[in-house]
């Protein structure tokens, strides 16, 4: 029993009362992953329409470049939107002073770049680590998705741009 109490003491100690971090962080992770998956699904649907058209058969390399460029831009835009959601949460809880700082911190945390000299209020620092975890999940999804698109549009059918 003493061991069990010692194991959960990090939650109950006042200096480590991170209940708010979990209450904000977990729904943010869930929301951004759902947004990301839905967004990637919409992108895939658009890629399916473009890659099934007649233009692909006439100009496979041009189709590959345009589709992969657009897919990458849209996936990056999803990451920016999701970082903006986290930045808004930091502003809402008072963890950062302004929108510019919040967005810079959020992008830095999400990408695990960490070189911006910005810090959350001490009470909200676990939330920053949770955003980094969220970033790993989102970037993993994007990486798998982009690889799948390369397979579908380029290498999977006839090599990149029709070259084998």
Evaluate the radius of gyration: 21 Å
**Could you report the average pLDDT, rounded to the nearest whole number?**
84
Task: Indicate how many domains the architecture comprises.
Answer: 1
Please bin the fraction of helical residues.
over 70%
Strand share of the residues?
under 5%
How does the overall form come out from the CA principal axes?
Answer: elongated
What report would you give on this structure?
- The chain is mostly helical and 164 residues long.
- The chain has one domain (23-48, 60-155): Helix Hairpins (Orthogonal Bundle).
- It is 79% helix and 0% strand.
- The protein has helices at 2-12, 19-51, 54-58, 60-93, 99-111, 125-158.
- Helix 2 (19-51) packs parallel to helix 6 (125-158) and helix 4 packs antiparallel against helix 6 (125-158).
- The longest helix is centred in the middle third of the chain and has 34 residues, at 60-93.
- The radius of gyration is 21 Å and the shape is elongated.
- The relative contact order is 0.15.
- The model is unreliable at 8-12 (pLDDT under 50).
Blueprint (SSEs and pairs):
Elements: H1 2-12, H2 19-51, H3 54-58, H4 60-93, H5 99-111, H6 125-158
Helix pairs in contact: 2-4, 2-6, 4-5, 4-6, 5-6
List keywords for this structure.
164 residues, mainly alpha, Helix Hairpins, 79% helix, 0% strand
Quick structural gist:
The protein has helices spanning 2-12, 19-51, 54-58, 60-93, 99-111, 125-158. It is an all-alpha fold.
């Amino acid at each position: 029993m003493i061991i069990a109490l010692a194991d959960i003491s990090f939650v109950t100690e006042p200096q480590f009362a991170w209940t708010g971090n979990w209450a904000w962080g977990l729904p943010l992770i869930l929301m951004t992953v759902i947004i990301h998956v839905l967004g990637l699904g919409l992108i895939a649907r658009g890629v399916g329409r473009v890659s099934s058209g007649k233009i692909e058969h006439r100009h496979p390399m041009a189709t590959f470049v345009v589709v992969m460029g657009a897919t990458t831009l849209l996936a990056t835009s999803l990451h920016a939107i999701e970082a903006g959601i986290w930045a808004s949460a930091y502003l809402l809880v008072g963890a950062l002073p302004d929108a510019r700082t919040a967005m810079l911190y959020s992008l830095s945390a999400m990408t695990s770049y960490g070189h911006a000299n910005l810090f959350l209020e001490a009470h909200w620092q676990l939330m920053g680590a949770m955003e980094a975890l969220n970033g790993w999940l989102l970037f993993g999804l994007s990486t798998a998705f982009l690889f799948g698109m390369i397979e579908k549009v380029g290498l999977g059918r006839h090599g990149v741009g029709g070259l084998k």
